[in-house]
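Many introductory courses stop at the sequence. We go one step further.
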Amino acid sequence: MATTSKSARTANRPAFRCGECGTTIAKWVGRCPECQAWGTVEEYGVPKARTATAGPVSAPARPIGEVNAITAQARPTGVGELDRVLGGGVVPGSVILLAGEPGVGKSTLLLAVAAAGAEPDRRVLVVTGEESAAQVRMRADRIGALDDNLYLAAETDLGAVLGHLDQVKPALLVLDSVQTFSSSEIDGAPGGMTQVREVASALIRVAKERELAVILVGHVTKDGSIAGPRLLEHLVDVVLQFEGDRHSPLRLVRAIKNRFGPTDEIGCFEMRDTGIEGLADPSGLFLTRRSEPVPGTCVTVTLEGRRPLVCEVQALVAPSTLPQPRRATSGLDSARVSMVMAVLERRGRVPLGKNDVFVATVGGVRLVDPAADLAVALAMTTGTMDQPLPPTVVAFGEVGLAGEVRPVTGLARRLSEAARLGFKVALVPRHAEGEDLPKVPSGMRIVQVSDIADMLVTLHTMISR
């Protein structure tokens, strides 16, 4: 009898589950023991074991060839750079999550998208949970995003949002932001795991039923990941990351997940006083216009997704008056720059150990492409020699610890972009025998280098001419 009573108490006892990874534990803890996430463990009742039974179907299954795919065709948003990332536009019935740091320009971008998508036969509804309607109206006046078919509401309740959908019947819904909305039928504060999951699930359900395109704005955590349960990223169709330094006008939108298009495209935007505008040709932002070449500079071509961007790397090398020389980087990975410095000293005998070395990019762009290693090495070498590279030279290649210069991907696209901007000579990694070189653009000459020593010989030849 005692055993039965104890079993009944155990069966009725509430359990705790992590909203991030789904791990179930017996008692509440502040940090999940499985995924190490903080504040994600919530109490829930132990569900009774049930056997699934057959139920009614919403529509009979059909051969895949009979399914009409026209309704899933993308519709352009009117913002070309965003359409590039989305794969042509917004698909009816899709749910898009746009995440980014505070103040980067998410609301400004989506207000411009909403105004561009509003047409006489296509209404757009913007629901803001962070600002008042008057504040959004002021921003719309500033960026010129006013349209009679653009509707605006300030709400924080999920039921009110669904009510607006019944009244306005829009083709596109923008929700800013998903962490500020809550459902009265679910316990928990807005922004909590349970509320975010419920709000997102309800909107996804409505989007699929009504062929309504939905764009959700999401917050990010301190480490740059999307706030809320990881399940949110799995539920939505598209996840976009909005990146940018608030001290730079450049903004990048990249796709982390896309069920309707590629995930290797980026969109480039420039933040201005009059709003945010797409940049079809952003390479000019990352170059310094000067009349004479300067020592310590080198131009490279990086690939952001499938888009080639021409960027300039600058290095300042000066004798140090400190026992420990200073090292500073901006826009580059400091660990990778330190590695290139060590390779230059050890394999190329370039005297950098007793010098202060500062390396930076132009225009606030961040280079994570290993193909920029060769340009970094050339910039530091010419800065040490106090001799400039010819202004028509561009370089790209990955530098290894043994001093070798390794091949890079997308060589043809890099060469084409450099030739389009007027560069005449390209330093590239040496290809193996029998390996075909990409087609060289007209008017451009390529110089192959196999290692750091070969690079230094080529550099001395260019400077002595």
